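Researcher: Predict the fold of 3-phenylpropionate/trans-cinnamate dioxygenase ferredoxin subunit.
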Amino acid sequence: MALTRVCSVDELPMNQAQRVVLEGVPIAVVKDSAGDVHAIGDTCTHGEISLSEGFVEGDTLECWAHGSAFSLKSGKPMNLPAYEPVPVYEIQIQDGDIFIDPTVTKEITA
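Model: Structure tokens for 3-phenylpropionate/trans-cinnamate dioxygenase ferredoxin subunit follow.
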């Protein structure tokens, strides 16, 4: 497992996404309004747009271009025009730092 430090939890602004590229994989790292940290694929499945430039609302990240919102927990689109999910990455928080392995995605059911 190749965990890579992304940033500290304190450096991550609340209700905003931050784009990181790990091993060539674009990932949007988000701290939601509850303070929970999420990591999802940064590319909208509808239009190849960077999701990290979008809007965090509740537990979703909305694509700024066409309005599809993706669940930060499951990666599933919550509305059209997107209908394919984005990957959700496992994160680890150690001593206040966020680590992600871009080769490990969460297994999401239903």
